[in-house]
Design a protein that fits this description.
This protein is mainly α. It contains 18 helices and two strands. Helix 4 runs antiparallel to helix 11 and helix 12 runs antiparallel to helix 13. The radius of gyration is 22 Å and the shape is globular. This is Amino acid transporter.
């Protein structure tokens, strides 16, 4: 239960010659950052699965529920990011508030958000690249672009059992090699990717709405099949818990607090603004998609591409697929990068082996950690169905959100005297609502997903007591950790 002192974390954040970040970001820049982080695999990949299996056309309402839940949690992230603007994200916040054991739990849990998230996006990327190559008469055998024990359709309409998802593994290993080599996205490239994503989504909405068949929206809320979470009202909530993946990324907005000109107002505008804009876009995309294609046919890795094919404009279909690939590629890159940096921080604290914080002498990257993460993510992406991956990412992220909201309440009492650049309004009401919504969405995930989470956390606790508890830098009073270049 040892806590890392807030003063020590802030001092650690200033390592490297005492340099501070320039406060150059206004509310619009932060909002654009949020939109760029949020729009990714959720909208391009999981929307179709959730509509086909759980909510039908009412997947639109699922997005509304997910957006509301994120708003409460986002306000909590804003306070912690403004107070502790350092590396490690949620792991570091928890170390300062709830103690080492909870920090380890959330750091271990974040693997589900970052590493498993990258695997999920890679599977979606695979679906779009296969679809795009087909436009150029290049056909990848379906069984080599699908996980084992999943069905893949042949061109003649027959189905075969998947063997391995090679395109998913390929993109992960390619981006891992880039990250090991020190490749970084420039601000210009990031802005271009944001523009491409927004253009693709807006074009799909504006062009697709003219081809919508309103009959596909009836019934708007399909009758429950008699199974909990399978259509009906429980299906809407189950759908919300799955498409919640589409909102992952808004927590990255909170890391810009140190660079905000006026964090007291800019952070809530950026976080809530990006959430509102993305929620509206998501609802519109879900509406057009389910209006173009009967919801039962949307359980595919590339649902937007399938919907565009209904329109019949080949050039537009190719454009959408290029845009989706560009967006998904940057999301995989960021998730792989983020996972290695979280491992780096945990290893610096002694809770993981030192190799995870080893930095290449010339490239300045945690190359050993990045390579191991890349191999694991590639194997998982090659062998695991996307619906299982999506649910694991959602439950892992929601669990992290519960701890973040709890950390705000705890820190208000334990460190009440510390100045806060941004304060979450109506504490403890807002954090409690964030916890309630997160737990509610978790409750609608299937029992098998809960069991996987429990097993995952048990493995994590076993590793902590076998290694981390005896190697903790904080509790052993060690110093002199090597900084990341």
């Amino acid at each position: 239960m040892t806590r890392k002192p807030v003063a020590d974390i802030i001092a650690e954040g200033g390592e490297g010659g005492g340099h501070t970040l320039s406060k150059t970001l206004g509310p619009w820049s932060i909002t654009a950052l949020g939109i760029g982080c949020i729009i990714g695999a959720g909208i391009f990949v999981l929307t179709g699965t959730a509509a086909a299996k759980y909510a039908g056309p009412s997947i639109m309402l699922s997005f509304v529920v997910g957006g509301i839940a994120c708003a409460f949690v986002g306000l909590c992230y804003a306070e912690l990011a403004a107070l502790l603007p350092v590396s490690g994200s949620t792991y570091t916040y928890t170390y300062a508030t709830l103690g080492e054991i909870f920090a380890w739990i959330i750091g271990w849990d974040l693997i589900l958000e970052y590493a498993m998230g990258a695997s999920t996006v890679a599977v979606g990327w695979s679906g779009y690249i296969v679809s795009l190559l087909r436009n150029f008469h290049i056909n990848i055998p379906p069984q080599y672009a699908a996980a084992p024990w999943t069905e893949a359709k042949l061109p003649d309409g027959t189905t075969v059992e998947g063997i391995v998802n090679l395109p998913a593994a390929f993109i992960v290993l390619l981006l891992t090699a880039m990250l090991m080599g020190g490749t970084k996205e420039s601000a210009r490239l990031n802005n271009i990717m944001v523009a491409i994503k927004l253009f693709v989504v807006a074009a799909f909405i504006l062009l697709g709405i003219g081809y919508v068949n309103p009959a596909n929206w009836h019934p708007f809320i399909p009758d429950n099949t008699g199974e909990f979470g399978s259509f009906g009202l429980t299906g809407i909530m189950r759908g919300a818990s799955v498409v919640f993946f589409a909102f992952i990324g808004f927590d990255a907005v909170s890391t810009a607090a140190q660079e905000a000109k006026n964090p007291q107002t800019d952070m809530p505008i950026g976080i809530l603004g990006s959430l509102v804009i993305c929620t509206i876009l998501y609802v519109a995309v879900a509406g057009v998609m389910t209006g173009l294609v009967p919801y039962a046919q949307l359980n595919v890795p590339d649902p937007i591409a399938k919907a565009v094919d209904v329109i019949g404009l080949t050039w537009f279909s190719v454009l959408i697929k290029f845009g989706a690939l560009a967006g998904l590629t940057t999301v995989i890159l960021v998730l792989l990068y983020g996972q290695s940096r979280i491992f780096f921080q945990i290893a610096k604290d002694g809770l993981l082996p030192r190799m995870f914080s080893d930095v290449h002498p010339s490239l300045g990257t945690p190359y050993k950690s990045q390579l191991l993460i890349g191999i694991i993510v590639a194997v998982v992406a090659a062998l695991t169905p996307i619906d299982v991956l999506g649910e694991m990412v959602s439950i892992g992220t929601l669990f992290a959100f519960v701890l973040v909201c709890g950390a705000v309440i705890y820190l208000r009492k334990s460190d009440a005297e510390v100045a806060r650049p941004f304060r979450t309004p109506a504490v403890p009401v807002v954090p409690i609502l964030g916890i309630v919504f997160s737990l509610l969405l978790m409750a609608f995930l299937p029992l098998a997903t809960w069991m996987r989470l429990v097993i995952w956390l048990i493995i994590g606790l076993a590793l902590y007591f076998a290694y981390g508890s005896s190697h903790s830098v904080l509790r052993n009073g060690l110093r002199g950790q090597r900084p990341l270049k």
